[in-house]
Amino acid sequence: QVQLVESGGGLVQPGGSLRLSCAASGFTFSSYAMSWYRQAPGKERELVAAITNLGGVTHYADSGRFTISRDNAKNTVYLQMNSVKPEGTAVYYCKAAGGRYGEYVYWGQGTQVTVSS
Q1: pLDDT in tens, 37-52
Q2: CB 79 within 8 A of CB 19
């Protein structure tokens, strides 16, 4: 049974830091690209950052303030969020994509991040 379980969300003040984790099970984690998305109320889900199975990293939104990393020994992907802003308030999801054509896609249930003073 495939599972992606996000954790680490919560309330953080503007300018603060937060680290999200996504623990994977039920598939060969080291063969899958991983990514973080977020969805704010009333908005579409957007890509935040992505990392290949070999550790190649692509940052998208909030470049320079967010860092994605993975530990294949722990089947876990992380999102370090620094200098967070109120507009970063959203549900953050992790996604796994694998297979020869990326046809296997799994999502976690999401973790709420609220940036507010």
Answers
A1: 999 999 999 999 999 9
A2: yes
Write out the two tokens for 93: 């999801």
What three-state secondary structure class fits 29?
helix
Smallest CA-to-CA distance from 96 within 18, 19, 25 is with: 25
Structure tokens at 31: 């063969």
What digits encode the pLDDT tens for the residues 49-87? 999 998 887 767 666 789 999 999 999 999 999 999 999
Residue 36 to residue 61: CA distance in whole angstroms = 10
In a 13 Å sphere around the CA of 37, the CA atoms on its Cβ side amount to 17
- Quote the CA–CA distance of 56 and 54 in Å, as a whole number: 6
Candidates 34, 93, 41; CA nearest to 68 is 34
